Amino acid sequence: MLRDYWRSDWPAEGMATLTRLRIETGTGRVESRAVASGISHEFPKFDPRRVGKPYRYAYIACNPAHATRGLQQQVGKVDVESGALTTHDFAPDRYVGEPYFIPTGAGEDEGVVVTIVFDAASQLSAIVGLDARDIAAKPLFTARLKHHVPYGLHGCFSRD
């Protein structure tokens, strides 16, 4: 059952490294740099207006370094220039889905980071919005649903 997926004993340690690639289209030269962002991180997203352009901030689902097993319970903001990571923690009973950045202003981190959060205690989900400028702060909103939302496919879609 999809509602039991959160009980996964998923081995988070060493699962992935957040890596930033820069590709020079003229020469094909690739620069690769790992960004320290804890462990068990997935689904990096950034301001969609910056696709193909330089960007400073990425938003990820992650866990703290001590959580070496299990699904993600935090949403993190990664400064890919400095490597700094700031998180919003939903533990102990809530698990996050893929975060999405929705711009609300001109600045790169002026926006709302929205994610689905599954509450294992109630077996219900909520849509939560976090202030991208202060990801650790109290949520801007929480829309509690009357059901759970299964973990879905991940991606970004564009008409172009």
Q: Your description of this structure?
A:
The chain is mainly beta and 160 residues long. Helices cover 0% and strands 39% of the residues. It contains no helices and eleven strands. It has strands spanning 19-23, 30-34, 39-45, 57-63, 74-79, 85-89, 94-96, 100-103, 111-119, 124-131, 141-144. The strands form three sheets. Strands 7, 8, 9, 10 and 11 form a five-stranded antiparallel sheet that branches. A four-stranded antiparallel sheet has the order 3-4-5-6, with no helix packed on it. A hairpin with a 5-residue loop joins strand 5 (74-79) and strand 6 (85-89). The radius of gyration is 16 Å and the shape is globular. The termini are far apart. The mean pLDDT is 84.
What's the helix and strand layout?
Blueprint: E1 19-23, E2 30-34, E3 39-45, E4 57-63, E5 74-79, E6 85-89, E7 94-96, E8 100-103, E9 111-119, E10 124-131, E11 141-144
Antiparallel strand pairs: 1-2, 3-4, 4-5, 5-6, 7-9, 8-9, 9-10, 10-11
SSE order, one letter for each helix or strand: EEEEEEEEEEE
Low-confidence stretches: none
What portion of the residues fall into strands of 2 or more residues?
35-45%
Please report the number of helical segments: 0
> What is the makeup of the main sheet?
5 strands, antiparallel
* Helix proportion: under 10%
What does the overall shape look like?
globular
Mean pLDDT: 84
Report how far the terminal alpha carbons are from each other: 36 Å
Query: Based on helices, strands and strand pairing, what is the structural class?
Result: mainly beta
Radius of gyration: 16 Å
Number of strands: 11
